[in-house]
Design a protein that fits this description.
It is a single chain. This protein is mostly helical and about 160 residues long. The chain has seven helices and no strands. Helix 2 runs parallel beside helix 6. The protein is elongated.
């Protein structure tokens, strides 16, 4: 996924830069703004997934460490509670994104004439990827890899 993000970022910067240069000489690229906006939205949601997978988003480290030091079972329960809370939030976001796509699919962009739904599809796709990651995290809590997961999850 990181390679995809790099490719999308290069494409977005390239299109925007080319449009700036060509606008300066009086020949702007008409579709550049729409493409840049579409790619930016996808970068944001795929980037959220990559950050979530790498465990770089803010977390409840202090509280988890305190609870884990007092009781391993309580620490495991708290980690499970956090993952279930994240799952619930992501499920709402993903479902809401899906509903919005259904409404936006009939609209088209002004220049490219593609469905606006392609832009809004980034939310459910990113949400599904993160939901799968949460399920993986929950499974790791109950497997032999749990010690490694706990260390990575709450550094």
């Amino acid at each position: 996924m990181e390679k995809l993000l790099i490719i999308l970022m290069i494409a977005m910067v390239g299109v925007v830069f080319a449009n700036i240069v060509l606008r300066f000489v009086g020949r702007p690229i008409r579709w550049a703004d729409e493409v840049a906006r579409l790619v930016f939205v996808w970068i944001a949601f795929i980037g959220m997934y990559v950050g979530f997978r790498r465990k770089v988003h803010p977390s409840f480290t202090l509280l988890v460490k305190i609870i884990n030091n007092k009781s391993t079972k309580a620490g495991k329960f708290f980690k499970l509670l956090i993952q279930l809370s994240i799952f619930f939030f992501l499920a709402i976001i993903t479902y809401g994104g899906y509903l919005y796509i259904d409404q936006a699919w009939i609209q088209t962009t002004a220049v490219l004439r593609i469905s606006v739904g392609w832009k809004y599809m980034a939310a459910p796709v990113g949400g599904i990827l993160m939901l799968l990651e949460v399920l993986r995290n929950i499974m790791l809590l109950f497997t032999k890899e749990k010690a490694e997961f706990g260390q990575k999850m709450f550094k």
